[in-house]
Amino acid sequence: MLKLHQEGDRKPGARKSIPREWFEAEAAFWKAALxxxxxxxxxxxxxxxxxxxxxxxxxxxxxxxxTLRQDVLPGEARYNVAHEFLHLAMRAWxxxxxxxxxxxxxxxxxxxxxxxxxxxTEVAIERLAHSLVRLTPxxxxx
Length: 142
Ligand SMILES: [Zn+2]
Fold this sequence. Notes:
This protein has 142 residues and is α+β, with helices and mostly antiparallel strands. 46% of the residues lie in helices and 17% in strands.
């Protein structure tokens, strides 16, 4: 598809900063929508984080820290929040992957096997995030 760049358009890929309060409300929405009530989530919003988002689960506990980049690509904020909360919702999948690799893959193949599984999980979660955001069009980002 060809897109013409018009005078006054935002630069392609230009980021915009979204208020922290918006992220808090959106995080509460996805936590409830995905049935993650039992999780104690610490939400961190950083202006120029190295990633769009990150979900660090504290193994053995129902606690985690989700970090989100505050300056986002236009239209991407909702996907970023949904994506990180989907990592929590899919936690059992990650745990199963790790168990299969630890118990059934040779020591020399474990790193490569885990990398393949992590890449596949990222693609699946990103697709789910985009689908779920499209299914909730009543919510918008600022
Ligand atoms: Zn991810």
